[in-house]
Amino acid sequence: MKVVVIGAGLIGLLTALRLKQQGVDVTVLEKGKVARESSWAGAGILCPIHPWLYPDSFTELVNASLDLYPDLQAELENETGHDIQRIKSGLLIPCFEDDTIKHQSAAQAWSDQFDWGIQRLTSKQALDIEPNLSTNIEEALYWQHVYQVRNPELLKAVMLYLQKLGVEVIEHSEVAQLLEHETGSVCGVQTSQGKTYEADAVLLATGSWSENLAAQSGFDLPVKPVKGQIILLKTKPGTLKHIVKHDDAYFVPRKDGRVLVGATMENVGFARGNTVKALSELLEATQRLIPGLKHAQVEQQWMGFRPGSPDGLPFLGEVPSKQGLWVATGHYRNGVALAPITAKVMADWICGSQPNINMDAFAPSRTPKESESVGYPQA
Ligand SMILES: Cc1cc2nc3c(=O)[nH]c(=O)nc-3n(C[C@H](O)[C@H](O)[C@H](O)COP(=O)(O)OP(=O)(O)OC[C@H]3O[C@@H](n4cnc5c(N)ncnc54)[C@H](O)[C@@H]3O)c2cc1C
């Protein structure tokens, strides 16, 4: 069987890896450089932002994905010798009196339902474990078992493993159109340089750029870019110990002491670059939430385009009207957390095994309901 994967982000690369392991002849085509878009830019928190705002089917998919991470880590590190920096940081949500959204009761109910082990900490207990937090907090929600991964390291390990397995990943090769038989089934792709690749199946893993390619082939895939800007602070290891999340910003302490502060949610199309406004908003949030970081130096800034969907959920499966065309896109804020299960389900499915998780909520043919809480931000 021959499969072409369009898009060398984490979703396309990891699915290509799983396909290859099932004996598929797989080629990945990437319009730019490998693994340099959303998957590279993301924060790598292995827990959705406010998962209680999503339907239960989403948490079920997340849980199935996170269960695969320990084995994925071991496999990648054993096969490549590369440390993906997946570490258990725990996650704290500080709660202030003037928070516009009070997450406590929904978070508690979600955590109890899915056995995520929430702890409600008093202000003193929270400051005992994270002394640089604001002393103005009323309480904090704490999940001890939340992990993070460092995206560029994860991607590097996946790439090294793909090379080892002999998977061809071709850069600067933009797919301009899908090739179809007269019956309408998809049988390959053509690049903007006019090169064709025949295939038994094509996987569209094109992140934020999915909508146009789908439209050219006559089906709707409402995926839009949601820009996120991030800053990196330089601190000493141990200055911040836990991932800290709030509606205004989140903070991810890396192994080397650096702290990633993110991220804006911007509905600005494909406008690249960092802005002074975003920098000052993220620094302001840092001062308010974690004053102990206020003197840390800003070392770096970057941005990425999250592949947003109207209901916050990915599109996963075969396109009903186009036999042979599969999609795995629209992972929005959760593509790193969802990558292991996406790759497994998609590879199995393309190779003929039905998923043992109910995938209806993620069907590419659904008409997604716009969600105010997890859909697109205001323009
Ligand atoms: C600031 C920020 C913070 C984030 N934080 C987190 C987090 O903490 N946890 C989490 O789980 N997720 C997070 N995410 C989301 C996560 O990064 C994404 O959901 C995930 O990376 C999407 O992966 P992808 O492979 O679908 O997309 P991408 O990584 O964008 O890859 C898509 C690839 O397809 C290529 N492509 C597009 N069109 C074509 C074409 N026609 N031909 C060939 N190639 C094409 C693109 O060039 C690109 O390389 C964050 C994202 C951002 C931006």
What is the assigned CATH homologous superfamily of the largest domain? Answer: FAD/NAD(P)-binding domain
**Total number of strands:** 19
Which strand-content bin applies to the residues?
15-25%
Assembly state of the chains shown: single chain
Calculate the mean pLDDT score and round it.
Answer: 96
Looking at the overall shape, the CATH architecture of the largest domain is 3-Layer(bba) Sandwich
In this entry the ligands are: flavin-adenine dinucleotide
Give a quick account of the main beta sheet: strands, pairing sense, barrel closure.
Answer: 8 strands, mixed
Question: What structural class is derived from the secondary structure elements?
Answer: alpha/beta
Q: Please give the CATH class of the largest domain.
A: Alpha Beta
Overall outline: globular
Write the CATH fold name of the largest domain.
Answer: FAD/NAD(P)-binding domain
Number of helix segments?
9
Write the H/E string, N to C: EHEHHEEHEHEEHEEEEEHEEEEHEEEH
Provide the gyration radius in Å.
21 Å
Helix share, percent: 25-40%
Count of domain modules: 2
Terminal residue distance: 43 Å
Q: What ranges have pLDDT less than 50 throughout 5 or more consecutive residues? A: none
